[in-house]
Specification:
The complex is a heterodimer. By secondary structure, chain A is an all-alpha fold. Helices cover 65% and strands 0% of the residues of chain A. Chain A has helices at residues 21-25, 31-51, 55-60, 63-81, 92-112, 125-133, 136-149, 158-185, 196-219, 239-275. The N and C termini of chain A lie far apart (58 Å). In chain B, 33% of the residues lie in helices and 24% in strands. In chain B, strands 1-10-9-4-5-6-2-3 form an 8-stranded mixed sheet. In chain B, strands 7-8 form a two-stranded antiparallel sheet. Classes of the chains: A mainly alpha, B alpha+beta. At the A-B interface, helix 3, helix 6, helix 7 and helix 8 of A face helix 1, strand 1, helix 5, strand 7 and strand 8 of B.
Chain lengths: 285, 233
């Protein structure tokens, strides 16, 4: 088992192998991700401000959604524009924490931040594109491809993997996970036909590979990710401790998605039983 | 008197609770159409990744290439024969540089072994234009004599360079290398955790690529990278 190594060209750990939180959060701008992030935040703020003018706009786009979106953007900036992003080669746990923020925290916050009053035409333009991208089959295939292609370098084109991992992988984790979370949370019913049952199954299937990897990392008695054997480890953690910590991070990050999948499946089963003429048990009068 | 309540259908859509919104969801597409779209999406994703990699470096290096125009930084020290050694990018042969130490139990011997195998696989003319440089991150224990014994053990192609502190820290910083004492049992009994990368510098002084030590075992691919840089120089 392996994971991609982002060989950061700017990594500079000499002299500071015990970075503090302030060191990790120090700004390290990456324009390729910073500019699109700020543009997306700007468009959101513009449309949100415009919605404040009418009662219907305010009702369809409550402040709590904007707050969740803002929190998502803040976490995205921390994960991609801070010095922590340049230290991932020195700590598997830090690397995994960063990827999990991008895959399991930022996407649900951004998706929940979208207004329910958004209505797109599934047959035209952006609506049509999202209708395809948010097809559960497409989202699951893209998510799986990102996980598999960039985690099993030897099996595919190693040149493409090693030359894109550092630069593309954070963005790919973010985008593919946005697709997955959009299928699960269904923020755009006008272009997403999936019912709650299929979303529950989808959430369960898409969460399983990550939970399996997390379990292996947690309980393995040896370091499985060879680049971290005897390599530098921040905060004086051993490579094995780093691996186990990574397993915990991955498992904890995956739990909300797994719990939501079970809730959706349970709701689907209740719906099924209601549909079969078996009303839910009434509480005693 | 109260104002008449408008019929529900007359209310703006966004004021209705979600459960009362008209179901405008599109029909689900057949599974085979979804499957085809999934295959197309994955194909596009991989093509885009391939395109990005080629944009970054037209030649498909096995190592991770640096953006064009990344100049290597010069450094000076003493080689294993006690002679002054200076790496002045742009004036010497194609150089593979890695940072290690002679008490290293695994990664440094592996790196030196495989880099020497790559060198041995080159033609004599190419060998004359290629060198391997080990920069010691343990100048306290890596004396000239020890460095000499160490690099000689692995072949004749490598140069061992000793750089005293604090100059070593500056060189390491220039190359993005970290190192730290670990498992310290005494003043001369310890290990050193260090960055495991090998940097390939072209004859023009450009930092071309970096290999992780796990990549060095694929001698054929590493050799292809070196040959391409030699040809381009």
């Amino acid at each position: 088992m392996s994971a991609p190594v982002p060989l950061e060209t700017t990594v500079n750990t000499a002299g500071n192998l015990n970075p503090t939180l302030a060191d990790l959060l120090a700004p390290a701008p990456d324009p390729w991700l910073l500019i699109p992030t700020l543009l997306a935040a700007g468009v959101y703020l513009w449309r949100f401000s415009a919605s404040r003018g009418t009662h219907a706009g305010r009702a369809g786009w409550p402040v709590w959604r904007a707050a969740l979106f803002a929190l998502g953007i803040l976490l995205l900036l921390i994960a991609t524009q801070s010095r922590a992003a340049t230290l991932t080669q020195s700590s598997m746990a830090l690397y995994m924490g960063r990827l999990m923020i991008l895959a399991e925290l930022v996407p649900p916050l951004l998706v929940l931040g979208l207004p329910r009053s958004l209505h797109l035409n599934a047959r035209r333009g952006l609506g049509r594109a999202l209708n395809v991208l948010l097809d559960p089959w497409v989202a699951l295939a893209v998510w799986t491809a990102v996980i598999v292609f960039w985690n099993v370098p030897a099996g595919f084109n190693a040149s493409v993997v090693s030359n894109t991992a550092g630069a593309l992988l954070p963005a790919l984790y973010l985008l593919s996970s946005l697709m997955v979370w959009s299928v699960i949370l269904r923020p755009l019913p006008s272009v997403q036909p999936a019912g709650i049952g299929s979303r529950g199954w989808f959430g369960l299937i898409s969460a399983m590979p990550m939970m399996a990897v997390a379990s292996v990392w947690l309980y393995s008695p040896q370091v499985l990710y060879t680049p971290y054997v005897s390599a530098l480890c921040l905060w004086n953690y051993t490579p094995l401790q780093n691996q186990q910590l990574s397993g915990w991070i991955m498992m904890l990050a995956g739990l909300p998605a797994l719990a939501l999948a079970f809730i959706q499946l349970f709701a689907w089963l209740i719906k099924l039983s209601e549909g079969q003429g078996m009303p839910p048990t009434q509480p005693p009068a | 008197m109260t104002a008449p309540t408008p019929p529900e259908s007359a209310l703006p859509e966004s004021t209705l609770p979600d459960s009362t919104l008209p179901d405008s969801s599109p029909a689900a597409r057949p599974w085979y159409a979804s499957a085809l779209l999934a295959v197309a999406a994955v194909t596009l994703l991989l093509l885009a990744a391939w395109g990005y990699a080629r944009l970054r470096s037209p030649y498909p290096y096995y190592g991770t290439s640096y953006p064009a125009g990344t100049a290597a930084r010069p450094f000076s020290g003493t080689d294993q024969r006690g002679q002054p050694f200076t790496l002045t990018p742009g004036t010497g042969p194609v150089t593979a540089v890695f940072f290690g130490f002679t008490h290293c139990p695994n990664i440094c011997p592996l790196s030196l072994t495989y880099l020497n195998r790559v060198r041995d696989a080159l033609t004599p003319e190419q060998q004359a234009r290629f060198r391997i440089v080990l920069v010691s991150v343990d100048p306290d224990r890596d004396t000239r004599q020890r460095l000499n014994e160490y690099v000689s053990f692995f072949g004749k192609g490598a140069v061992g360079v000793r750089i005293p502190e604090p100059a070593l820290a500056a060189v390491a910083r220039d190359y993005g290398v970290g190192y730290q004492k670990a498992d310290v049992k005494g003043p001369t009994d310890y290990q050193i955790n260090h960055t495991t990368a090998t940097y390939l510098i072209g004859a023009d002084g450009q930092l071309v690529l970096v290999w992780d030590y796990t990549q060095l075992t694929d001698v054929r691919r590493v050799q292809a990278d070196v040959e391409h840089v030699l040809e381009a120089s």
